User: What shape does this take?
Amino acid sequence: MDVGIVFRIALRALARNKMRSALTMLGIVIGVSAVIAMVAVGQGAENQVQAQISSFGTNTVMVSAGSPARRPGGARTGFWSVKTLVVEDMQAIEREVPLIRKCAPGTMSSQQIVFRNQNWYTRVMGTTGDYFTVRDWPLLRGTMFAEDEVRAAQNVVVLGKTVADLLFIGEDALGQTVRIKDQPFQVIGILAPKGQSAMGDDQDDRAFIPYTTLQKKLSGQDWVQFLSCTAITREASVAAVPQIERLLRERHRIRPGDEDDFSVRTQSEVADLAEQTSRVMTLLLGSIASISLLVGGIGIMNIMLVSVTERTREIGIRMAVGATESDIQRQFLVEAVTLSLLGGTVGILLGAGASGLISGFLGWPVAVSFEAVIAAALFSAAVGIFFGYYPARTAARLDPIEALRYE
Assistant: This one.
């Protein structure tokens, strides 16, 4: 029998009981729309986390003073807690690790920044102009501090967008003078907004000064807390880690078997971990939502079994005029798949709409992927085939004589 004819017969059969068909499809509609919406939420969260991690630089290698490893006596020094990491280590990495393109030192100090009658307590970071290249962090306005300003430990500052907005309400920050620990600093640049980090803190709530200025005039330290390095590629950032570790162990005269006094991490490791976590969450949400698809499939099987019972005499007549078992089976299977596909189509539209509502009203990031739509459509078709096979097989195995005599 021609497939087009079978499909038209299936549509006519379903149209005889419009309400029953609509209620049967409802389970598939709810299931597919739930899967689409939940996967969109999970995918949106994953994209947001990846974007936040990428804001640190995709090829970034972080070298921190201190290590989480247990030290002799059972104590852990923790990050930024030792004084062995120095600028000369950074210069050695740039010189002897070819996979690393550029590095910048970093040292932090929490300070009150004052402008006239406005003030803001924030983190002041001492670094070089290369830090913004490593972080791929452009300026909104102004200039970075130059190498000669770093060497001379000049009092210049580049402000994050949050700090600039809070201190200079309705005024242009460029060229203004702020006070940091009673030291006057000239504002020479405003950074472009970076947004929240993967840990949830505001990356724009920062002020940046030459690391030499922070060491000599604010903190009095002669070491650095961390180094931010960028590799030539993302893969190179991972390969550079053991090279950096060997170099620093040699420079810090760490004997074999002793724990490192530093820690080396890559953004790719963080990104991979976050991606795995987000993928698990997306799969979990999709799996929970797909339960309603199974319930909808059971509804299709139930209705198709009822339909077989109601149309037993019709089946007998079709067999009597020459329809084969495969024709009868195909007819009922197509009806089940048609119900499932129609419900799946409506469910995809509702799922996309629900994703938009979630994003609009709750402010959650969502991403309706083409792969999720295709998977939902295929899954709904598979549900129709799986749950429609038994009723179709039951109809095909009816005895023609008994079917004709059925009242």
